[in-house]
Amino acid sequence: MERVTPMSDTAEKVKKIVVEHLGVEESKVTNEASFIDDLGADSLDTVELVMAFEEAFGVEIPDDAAEKITTVKDAIEYIEKQKAE
Amino acid sequence: MGIASPLGLGVERVWKRLLNAESGITAIQSFDTKDLPAKVAGPVPAGTRSEGGLDLNEWIPIKDQKKMDRFIQLALVAASEAVEDSGWMPEDEDGRCATGVMIGSGIGGLDTIYETSETVRAGKVRRLSPFFIPSALINLASGHVSIKYGFKGPNHAVVTACATGVHAIGDASRLIALGDADVMVAGGAEATINEIGIGGFCAARALSTGFNETPAQASRPWDENRDGFVMGEGAGVLVLEEYEHAKKRGAKIYAEVIGYGMSGDAYHITAPPDNGDGAYRAMKAAMRSARLEPEQVQYVNAHGTSTFADDVELGAVERMFGDAARSVAMSSTKSAIGHLLGAAGAVEGIFSILSIRDQVAPPTLNLDKPSRASVIDRVAKEAQPRRIEVALSNSFGFGGTNASILFRGAP
Question: Percent of chain B, pLDDT > 90?
């Protein structure tokens, strides 16, 4: 079964957090968008973004996993997987 | 030049209100003061830019606001006004590399440190913001201004408590004189109207506590009923430029920095010696560097914080000027805006420059009856039109650090 659908609650919430934290337009926050390459984040922004995900979804994202979350889709998939476990 | 102050934003607006003898001191609203003896302060008023208030969204992108403490935000606001006013926007790399920034602060990101320590206390040390450190560091005011404008010259920050602003202007002007830069964006910023800022100065018995019901009367330099300083917040920024460089590009020149002097008291961590010798030596050094005689100075913007030390400074100024004291006007603009700590010297430096431009000495509010008589006119309550060719501005800080700076009208 496909875990991530474009309109899942998680996806919507993740995108909202990205919009708020990076101050970017919603239309730019596509699944494929890279935080650094496409959305203007720097390395400190991504650290803060991961913390915001942790807080919002009540999950823990260890540093080695956080390093691999570079796109919106990465974040959605990781969080959905954590929540499913 | 640029100002963010308790009398609002914008040099001309603040100056006009100052000359009208308006006060920016109000009852503290931003937190509960019930357990604190001091309940008044001078915050930068909220509002739109067009009405002279601060709406951060007009100045700094929302996503960047959380990356900087309020003192940095205020520095950026004042620096934006100053840089725009100067018209200096270097378009080539050489110009950018010859433009530096030296904006200091007395205390730095106190709000940020306070809030972050609350997070730690709540057992969430792993949840600290990655922006905590760069938000609190004092030199990040200079850092943010340089990043915003691409100024790649000397990037420096002064930290000398309440003398910071004068030291920044003086040191930056020396960097230009030494050839390290052609242009320096210099000044000070401070934002410590919070529980530990007010509480800390209360503990040092430094703040006024007797005028909580009448905030506009709380800051009263030299008055017999003064009982401590009133904390203000804000920023003052000046664009200093090598004279030929400024002339060549047809810049608007307000004034010239013609003298700068520094000294240390080597006496006590918070109090000056009764004889005011450190203040005297700082002024003397400034006069020496300008090769001026006392009768050539017509206005002094005093440190005058509304504490016992006002009379110490008065004594030092009388000693400095000797017979010329009769013809000098001295006022403390802290009576209207409170004490902006690390920003004080920069904002007061701007006031000193404007006193020359407009030939008027700004007033000392609330000076009903001086605790000590003097031949020096302290410009009680109302601004005075005067002939002013040269103005001296004093700032003294905890640790026994003293700085004096001399300005002359545009050549």
Answer: 99
What pLDDT score does B291 carry?
A: 98
For residues B222 and B371, the answer to whether their CB atoms sit within 8 Å is yes
φ, ψ of residue A80 in degrees (nearest 5): -60, -40
**Whole-angstrom distance, CA of residue B380 vs CA of residue B39:** 25
B130 to chain A: which residues are within 8 Å by CB? 44, 47-48, 51
Contact state of A23 with B62 under an 8 Å Cβ cutoff? yes
Q: Is B359 left (phi over 0), alpha (psi -120 to 50) or beta?
A: left
Q: How far apart are CA B223 and CA B241, in angstroms?
A: 39
- Check CB contact under 8 Å for A21 and B127: no
Tokens of B203: 């503990």
- pLDDT tens column, B260-304: 999 999 999 999 999 999 999 999 999 999 999 999 999 999 999
Tokens of B356: 């020359």
| Nearest chain B Cα distance for residue A47, angstroms | 7
The pair of structure tokens assigned to A29 is: 């926050």
Cβ neighbourhood burial of B122 (10 Å; 0-12, 13-18, 19+): exposed
Chain B positions in Cβ-Cβ contact with residue A21 (cut-off 8 Å)? 63
Query: pLDDT (tens digit, 9 = 90+) per residue, B318-366?
Result: 999 999 999 999 999 999 999 999 999 999 999 999 999 999 999 999 9
pLDDT for the residue B131: 96
Q: CA-to-CA distance for B82 and B235, rounded, in angstroms?
A: 11
CA separation for the pair B260, B231 (Å, rounded)? 26
Any B CB within 8 A of A26 CB: no
* A–B interface: beta-carbon pairs under 8 A: 18
By three-state DSSP, how is residue B410 classified? Answer: coil
Beta-ladder partners of B125: none
Cβ neighbour number for residue B247 with a 10 Å cutoff: 12
The model's pTM: 0.95
> Pairing relation of β-strands B299-301 and B329-331?
parallel
Q: Is A58 within 8 Å of chain B by CB?
A: no
